[in-house]
Amino acid sequence: MPDLFTRLFRRHHEGPGLSCRELVELVSDYLEDALPPSERSRFEAHIAGCEHCAAYLRQMREMLELLGELTDDAISPRAEADLRLAFRDWKAGSGGSR
Amino acid sequence: MYGAPVADDHALVERLRAGDEEAFMDLVVRWSPSMLRVARMYVPSQAVAEDVVQETWLGVLNGIDRFEGRSSLRTWVFSILVNRARTRGERERRTVPFAALARQEGDDDFAAVDPDRFVGRGDGVGSWAAPPVRWWEEPERALDSGEAAQRIEEEIARLPEMQRLVITMRDVDGMSSEEVRSALEISETNQRVLLHRARAKVRAALEDYYADA
Prior knowledge:
The complex is a heterodimer of chains A (98) and B (213).
Chain A: H1 4-14, H2 20-31, H3 37-49, H4 51-69, H5 77-93
Helix pairs in contact in A: 2-4, 3-4
Chain B: H1 7-17, H2 21-40, H3 46-63, H4 73-89, H5 98-105, H6 146-158, H7 161-172, H8 177-184, H9 188-212
Helix pairs in contact in B: 2-3, 2-4, 3-4, 4-8, 6-9, 7-9
């Protein structure tokens, strides 16, 4: 049987009616702004009182930043030149309508 | 929303139709890098991916007169791209329609975090038993290191097709949810479920990486 402190601490952790385990499944909906207002309030109340879930959310945001910074390769100069030529062909091929 | 027709799109489409070469090349330069990334998911080499991107642009030119502007131009370009890349990559395999695949990938049980990491019963059931590993407290292994990016790329490569497409288009290429779901013709809910699963898996992989360090 956990002592009183642990029980109060955990109750605080669980937030009002939303457990940590439930919260992590709502993180994407939260970030997508897809939670109904009451659910959103419960989510935010939980985050405000739970450092671990706050950490989880923060990690998710940091990860999103990283994803946005992944670099993509540019198209090769040759492919670019080919496309320029293809465009000219296409334009010429449309019988002067362009 | 960006998936819907964009005001700029109209002018852009008119310029393309009118044969404005610089307008076309500007789009080629801006959009091809993320198109290459998506194409690369389906084909065995960067060279073939580049072929697919080129074919897509030719398809865009040949179809531009028929483009009705019901979606954004980018959505339309990506839907052509994805379908071409898929055809090219799966010549022998049976190709399942995106919507069916999206439902399938969103169907089975899923937990964003291993259920064993939460208190299983009694007081505090459902709260963290093994909280997230704090990766930002290790500045020497900063998240912006090339290694973290590498780890992310590997994990994305391991995701099932639809999850991989959605996280790539949304979070790597910065497309809106509306753009992605109209390009892939999947529902909003499916899109969100796929994104959720993909993000949770990539976060978990990063956490593992830092925990093992």
